[in-house]
Design brief:
The protein is α/β, with parallel strands linked by helices and 257 residues long. It contains 14 helices and seven strands. It folds into two domains: 77 residues, Winged helix-like DNA-binding domain superfamily/Winged helix DNA-binding domain (Arc Repressor Mutant, subunit A, Orthogonal Bundle), CATH 1.10.10.10; 146 residues, Rossmann fold (3-Layer(aba) Sandwich), CATH 3.40.50.10490. The strands form two sheets. A five-stranded parallel beta sheet has the order 2-1-3-4-5. Strands 6-7 form a two-stranded antiparallel ribbon. Strand 4, helix 13 and strand 5 form a beta-alpha-beta unit.
Amino acid sequence: MIREFFGATKEDIQSLNQNERKLFDFVVKHMEEVSQMSIQQFAKRMFISTTSIFRFTKKLGFTGYTDFINSLIITTHAHENNALPGVILREGYLDEYVKNVMETVRVTSGESINRVMEILDQHPNIYILTDDNTHTIAQYSEKLFLGLGFYAYGPEATYQMQSLTNFIKDNDVIIALSYSGEDQEMNAFIERVYLRKKPYLISVTRSENNTLESLSDINFYIFADVVKLNNMDITSSISIMMILEFIVYSYIQREHM
């Protein structure tokens, strides 16, 4: 029986070493592309041997490369078939909602969290940028970081964001929250900032390739079913909030160890 990729690998992700984890992240971000590759093509793309690829698939619990590819194929097709708002109306959506959260937890990299901790140890100013679907999370995040003693600011309007261009300094932190990763105003603002200063950019986006991820020093990717109703985006933001809480709680734990 062919298994959905994330369900099939959920018990084995933590056993991956650093190089295998990079392979896993590549698969998640390029799932449709990888699903069309032979083992030789995948090995060539990753600059490793076919033996290493085969060992990687076995470590994830698959019987071999074909089983691995079949799992990717049914997973990408399942995501394509999530016609909305039918995704909410279908039976078992609550299970899917919880599964998205759990998958986000499983793929969140401890290495990336540790890199964020090292940046926060420098006690930078923190600027929280959002798209239309994440404004309320910015306000909550601002409160969290202020409570930790950081200067934190989350602009609520475009003109407020644009006014920050001359205030952001080298080694400050921009936290950018956008599920699509394709908010044009946000990405254009970040590129303008990069022309004059070099802040750290930490982003939270979807798992698929996107512009914001490519601009980022550290990217956390999440899972959610895109939900639009009456031309309004009501995609769940719970996984975005969860990543921010991971960062804050990890910092609190680090400070009190």
